[in-house]
Known about the structure:
This protein is mainly beta. The protein contains one helix and eleven strands. It has a six-stranded antiparallel beta sheet with strand order 2-1-11-10-9-6, with no helix packed on it. The longest helix is centred in the N-terminal third of the chain and has 18 residues. The protein is globular.
Amino acid sequence: MKRIQYIAIYGVLIIGLMGCKKEVADPDSFNPNVLPPLTHEGKNTFGCKVNGEVWGIGAPYTISGPVALDGSYTLSTGRFYLKGTLKTDGGDIFENVRIRANEVYSVGEYNMGISSDQVTGFSDYSENHNCGSYYNIQESPGKIFITYFSISEGIISGVFEMDLVNPSCPGDTIRIREGRFDWRMIVY
Length: 188
């Protein structure tokens, strides 16, 4: 009789343990609560802290909708442009962060490229911030630090930071810190 009881107890334990499944995070998967790692592999990652909150890319797949990461690199001028987009399925969040630099031909420090008085660095299409757009300005354009650059591999990686303003919202600043990207370039 005791043997049957032991078998029954062990059977219940085994069945119970089989139902337990440990969640293991895939190191290559996107977690919106954690900044992407600093890599140099062309993993198409992009993230930063916006006013102290972690911000990462992600957009639901649609035929004509936004893509999570989009950009370009023009070899003849060294113009580098990258836009990360965060959009939720319900559209309650739809934002993007843009970085750009000119004459990028190697690893190094670059000012954010500004071709006119102001260039959009952060947009909020879902109206969760005071203003819809915040801009880089000549007096404080922001910095990009290219940490890896390879035309032959088609990879550009780095870190960035910037303070953005909107003249229509005096005193309101978007502070972007701990920005990082690892992008498989589209070279023109």
